[in-house]
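User: Please run a holo structure prediction.
Assistant: Happy to. Please share the sequence and the ligand.
User: Here you go; the ligand is hypoxanthine.
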Amino acid sequence: MDRLPHEKGFHVSWDQLHRDARALAWRLQGHGPEDGGWRAVVAITRGGMAPAMIVARELDIRTVDTISVKSYDHQSQSAPRILKSPDAALVGDGTGVLIVDDLVDTGRTLEVVRAAMPRAHVATIYAKPQGRAQVDTFVTEVSQDTWIFFPWDMALQYVEPYRGRD
Ligand SMILES: O=P(O)(O)OC[C@H]1O[C@H](OP(=O)(O)OP(=O)(O)O)[C@H](O)[C@@H]1O
Ligand code: HPA
Ligand SMILES: [Mg+2]
């Protein structure tokens, strides 16, 4: 996934990420298992970790695990694969488990994660159209040609006044 050919940039501050992750938690209330809340949250590393922490805090879920997926590599033609699985005894087939990621783009990451935990509920903060069908709950849709910049990948910097720029 390359951010260079994207037409638009959507820059997300920590403050906005916090608000959007809370909005996701709000949306998730009432969608959990009938016998109470989710048993565990599984964050998709690394981008899902901060959103998962905020959602777990809001929904009062204390058990949090991770899954690491290595993305598709055009050079090697290999499909995405799981580098680190969550505790099998904890997650089982995903029943009662909430999977959290920052966004879905093509949906390839979630395809692999869903195959590992088919009965889990999948939530992301942002979703692009191509991958939207892989997500059960999300907050904001952005167009496919938008690159989302997350606060952990950015820094505050000086910007020239409008009249100083050409
Ligand atoms: O829907 P897809 O096209 O699969 O893309 C979405 C995934 O890509 C990014 O993660 P990345 O693999 O770049 O790793 P990171 O979370 O460690 O930044 C993002 O955090 C999602 O997990
Ligand atoms: O729009 C994006 N932003 C950050 N990481 C990503 N990984 C796939 N798409 C994106
Ligand atoms: Mg990721």
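The two ends are 31 Å apart (CA to CA).
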